[in-house]
Design a protein that fits this description.
Blueprint: H1 2-85, H2 89-105, H3 111-126, H4 132-145, H5 161-167, H6 176-191, H7 200-203, H8 209-229, H9 233-250, H10 256-271, H11 281-291
Length: 294
């Protein structure tokens, strides 16, 4: 009897172990399947994340590349405008705008471009570049004043006889014949004027030649203007020197207008010693490096 009970217990134990093994195998297969599904989903998520990061980087690079190309095109156009107008202001304004756009982008690899822009801006500001638009305005102003300048041999109107007599100190009454001689002497004195002229060429200038002298001076100033617009600085300075020499030779040096015109021409000659703007090669090189992704 005991043997039968033991055999039955042993058989049930074996069946229980078999069922337990089967359950363990099922659980293992289910766990492995779930792990495979989880791994697959994790791989998909990782792939999607990688693709998203690549897309974001591509969009970022595309945005930065477009920004670099746009800035470079704007700076090149501003440089051409500065060369045509002979003024540094268009280029400086474009470089300040480019620096502001780069600062808003906040991209680390564009920091070198901002550094290059800062250096080129300081180089342009430190250069002794002539204010050509201002020189052109002063040239026009001097040309308009030529007709009002007094030639050196011009004879001004004499003071009226009554005014000269009023300015003279009172004298004792004189006989009529002495008064008559005084009047004749005053009239004769008003017919002859004596003045000192330093340049002999001005003495030989006929009154009807004064018109041609003024027109020739205007043409000389116009030639200087055209030479300056054509970037022929040496020719412009030579014309200004010739005009200043003509002013000193043929026009009244004691006149304030003549002195102001000569001073203006001399100052313009000094300003035109340098009209070439420094190039922005460092900024262009930095933009090329940034555009290449380096």
């Amino acid at each position: 009897m005991l043997a039968l009970v033991a055999l039955a217990a042993l058989g049930s134990s074996v069946l229980l172990w078999q069922k337990l093994g089967t359950i363990q195998e099922q659980l293992a297969r289910q766990s492995a399947g779930r792990q495979a599904v989880t791994d697959s989903r994790v791989s998909e998520v990782a792939l999607q994340r990688s693709q998203l990061e690549d897309l974001m980087q591509s969009l970022s690079r595309s945005r930065d590349e477009n920004l670099v190309v746009d800035i470079e095109a704007g700076l090149r156009l501003a440089q051409q405008q500065s060369q045509l107008t002979l003024s540094a202001e268009p280029l400086l304004a474009a470089m300040r705008a480019a620096d502001q756009r780069l600062s808003r982008a906040a991209e680390p690899r564009l920091v070198r471009v901002r550094t290059a822009i800062g250096r080129d801006v300081e180089r342009i500001r430190a250069a002794a570049v002539a204010d050509v638009p201002g020189v052109l305005l002063r040239l026009d102003e001097v040309a308009r004043q030529v007709d009002d300048l007094t030639v050196a041999n011009a004879v001004g109107p004499a003071a009226p006889l009554a005014a000269r007599r009023a300015e003279a100190p009172p004298a004792r009454p004189q006989p009529w014949w002495r008064q008559w001689l005084t009047t004749v002497a005053d009239e004769a004195r008003s017919l002859v004027r004596v003045s000192r002229i330093e340049q002999p060429e001005a003495v030989l200038l006929a009154p009807d030649q004064a018109f041609f002298l003024r027109e020739n001076l205007k043409l000389r100033l116009m030639n200087a203007r055209l030479a300056l617009l054509a970037r022929q600085t040496d020719a412009a300075r030579a014309d200004l020197a010739t005009a200043a020499a003509a002013l000193g030779r043929y026009f009244d040096p004691a006149s304030r207008r003549t002195q102001a015109a000569v001073t203006a021409l001399q100052q313009m000659q000094a300003q035109l010693r340098s009209v070439d703007l420094p190039r922005i090669d460092e900024t262009i090189a930095a933009l090329g490096t940034a555009g290449a992704g380096r």
